[in-house]
Write a structure and sequence with these properties.
Low-confidence stretches: none
Radius of gyration: 13 Å
Shape: globular
Helix content: under 10%
Largest sheet: 7 strands, mixed
Number of strands: 11
Distance between the termini: 40 Å
Structural class: mainly beta
Mean pLDDT: 94
Amino acid sequence: QVQLAESGGGLVQPGGSLRLSCAASGNIFGIYAMGWYRQAPGKQRELVATITGGGTTNVDNSVKGRFTISTINAKNTVYLQMNSLKPEDTAVYYCNANILGTNYWGQGTQVTVSS
């Protein structure tokens, strides 16, 4: 069993910042990468950013320069620092862990950007 515990979502005004956290626990031997995806109402889930255990990142162009992904490997925790938030960033954000080729998902945390 793998558990992904997310935190940090909420309501923020345009231009504001939020930091999402996700801690992995359980049978997590062999984590290859962790990351964040998001799903807005009526849209498909899309990649936001991922990071491998070696530190290689993949960041979607829509958030590049505004969002930063980082990790503390020893704690199996991944963070997403989100700055200069826009209304179009509003979505449910899901933590993802790829472990030995299997994808695991968190429950999701709501991020709402609105004035």
